[in-house]
Amino acid sequence: MFTNVALRTVLKSSAGVLRDFGCALKPWSCSSALIAAPGGASAVAGSFALHPPVRHYARGAKTKTKKTVPQSQLSDLPPTMLRMDYAAVPLVQTTDDLVKRLLSLELACHSDKLQLKKEQLIAKVQRDESDRNSVEVKVAILTARIRNYQEHLQKHHKDKANKRRMLMAIDTRKKMLKNLRLVRYDAFEKVCEQLGITYTFPPEYYRRVTRRWLAKKALCIKVFKEVQKRKEEVRLKMKQSLASTAEEAAKTKATSL
Asked: Which of 155, 244, 246, 247 makes a 20 to 30 Å CA pair with 62?
């Protein structure tokens, strides 16, 4: 009898202490109700009930974002337009719709569309109808090629070979525009306006100042000044020698007279 009373007293005191310190823990909560045991029996009152784990509570709701498809430079070409090889054939205009569809851009390959886009850009900047080799025409061809590379790399960004070709074409076009700007500024403005090119000036040369570079610069300045000093001495000696020879020639001429 005494042992049962002592056991109840110990259980009550331990349950009170755990109730005071256990309520501060978030995953646990003090429960005075009976917890059902796995075997169907009831547990002791004052025990702890474990809440079901809340997973990914700090993550926001996933929203499906649609990838923006870049607009192609060939999107303005109507699919009913004939290919460049058949546009000048008069017989094509009298054929039925099925043949026209086969010869149109709707079923054409990418190279045919790109060739037609090149011709459109060339027509904007060429000097006359027979101009095919001027700087403006070359810039238009490079522009169509560069934009085609850019569209390809947006879909296949790991294609290093085409990225290298694109950078080489950009450098070539930049050199052409630089020369055209120095020679014919009005043609340069027309090309940039018609083709939608934004010409940016190259950055100024900048070198990080280091102690080694400062020491080398000071040494070069010192050597330059020493060389200039020696050259000045040589010039002075030459002037003195010329003056002395002129005096001797004058004296000899005076004595001869």
From this structure: 155
Task: Kindly report each contact of residues 132-137 with a partner whose C-beta sits within 8 Å and lies 24 or more positions away, as own/partner.
Answer: 135/176, 135/179, 135/180, 135/187, 136/180, 136/187, 136/190, 136/191
3-state secondary structure of 45: coil
pTM of the model: 0.54
Q: Which of 40-49, 79-88, 136-145, 246-255 has the highest mean pLDDT?
A: 136-145
Domains annotated on the chain, with CATH: 73-108 (no CATH), 109-195 (1.10.287.10)
- Count how many residues are written for the chain: 257
Query: How far apart are alpha carbons 31 and 35 in whole angstroms?
Result: 8
Strand partners, 29: 49
